[in-house]
Amino acid sequence: MAAAGGLTPQARPGELNLAQVLTDGAQILIGTTAAVGGEVRGEAAPAAGGAARGNTVLDLNKATAEQLDGLPGVGPVTAQRILAWRDSHGTFSRVEELQEVEGIGAKTLERLAPLVRV
């Protein structure tokens, strides 16, 4: 943010995930004191074939079993476990919640974290 000139005193970035990995061309809208909120627009859809490739980041709350299966360290069984966790808990609120899925530990999370978002 500093390279772009920083935030104005009215900016309220609190609703944005400041750790979110962005794709080239994404537009970041930052909320203000008058219009609270914020969002990222223009994120690319996952690549054909399901896997997160290049700069594409997979949304854990929208991903299909095929897309999840394309991630490193995630096979069809773990992909189904992720979907089952999502079905029973609602949505992921943090990427770190993946560790609550059977078969995903700290090392797998470390590999997945740059490739997924919520």
From TrEMBL:
SMART domains: HhH1. InterPro entries: Competence_ComEA_HhH, Endo/Exo/Phosphatase_dom_1, Hlx-hairpin-Hlx_DNA-bd_motif, RuvA_2-like. One of its GO terms (cellular component) is type II protein secretion system complex. Pfam families: HHH_3 (PF12836). One of its GO terms (biological process) is protein secretion by the type II secretion system. Residues 66-85, 96-115 form the Helix-hairpin-helix DNA-binding motif class domain. SUPFAM superfamilies: RuvA domain 2-like (SSF47781). Gene3D superfamilies: AF1531-like domain. Transmembrane segments: none annotated. It comes from the Bacteria. GO terms for molecular function: DNA binding. PANTHER family: ENDONUCLEASE/EXONUCLEASE/PHOSPHATASE FAMILY DOMAIN-CONTAINING PROTEIN 1, ENDONUCLEASE_EXONUCLEASE_PHOSPHATASE FAMILY DOMAIN-CONTAINING PROTEIN 1. NCBIfam families: competence protein ComEA helix-hairpin-helix repeat region (TIGR00426). This is Helix-hairpin-helix DNA-binding motif class 1 domain-containing protein. It comes from Propioniciclava flava.
